[in-house]
Write a structure and sequence with these properties.
The protein is of the alpha/beta class and 293 residues long. 29% of the residues lie in helices and 17% in strands. α5 links the parallel β5 (151-156) and β6. It is globular and about 50 Å long.
Length: 293
Amino acid sequence: MSSCWEDDIMPEEQPSQPESSISLLQDGKWHEFIFNGYQPLASKPINVCYYIPQGQKTSTMRMLFILPGESRNASDHLKIFIDWANSNKVMIFALQYSEQYYPSTTEYILGGMNTKQSATGLLPREQWSFNYVESLFDELKASTNSNQTTYDMWGHSAGAQFVHRYVTFMPQAHVQKAVACNSGWYTMPDLNATFPYGFSPVEGADSDMQKTLLGRQIYVFVGGDDTSTVGLNNNPGSVEQGENRNQRGHYYFQRSQAIASEKGYPFNWQFGEVPGVGHDPVGMAKGSWKVLE
């Protein structure tokens, strides 16, 4: 099925692109569709809310994938970025792993690696819901005749947990920039620490994966006032990272930087603190989207 562009800005023909089953609109409004294009999890589709700015060919626009917090309100998070998308001519897509198919917060934030916060019961890689991201990217490239080879990611709270673990455990993913804001706790790039606080015993989680992660363009953001402990994971592995999200973000960045230094690996991460902002996706978006421009 070919894509529909209501403002007659048609993508250029690129015969090498596979045919897409998605029909997208570029009409100045946001829309949504259901995507089940990752075959091993086709019975557990995701919802995708999207917005495509007018006035430019889709074939040349960058893509940003947005991961919402625990409430998984993808449309609300998408709307936060619409003005920014218009200014920067970026196609934005907010991914919703609905509670209908992904009922627990743990399953969401661990990208389907496990349904519990444990090193036991880890699922095979092909069953990880992380895989939907690359499948969606491939489908969108075909639908828009895109010349883009990478995409960016932005997540807040539970979405930030998804994002930072995605770039950790999916080393082949075509992510250019990954922004994680106000994550509640983190998986450290530590080969010896036990999952979900480290790499062991995840299949394929070795020094090569560690080096790839530390060399990525990752932006860790915390709100200067995100110091509440309400609803936080207070398991020992999380408490070791700090008392609140602000402290834990500092710890994650500093510990990762130290590991890179110890190993002699390139370290391309950046850290940012947004003054006066608590656990608020709007404030964090405004304080962090500069790095995505």
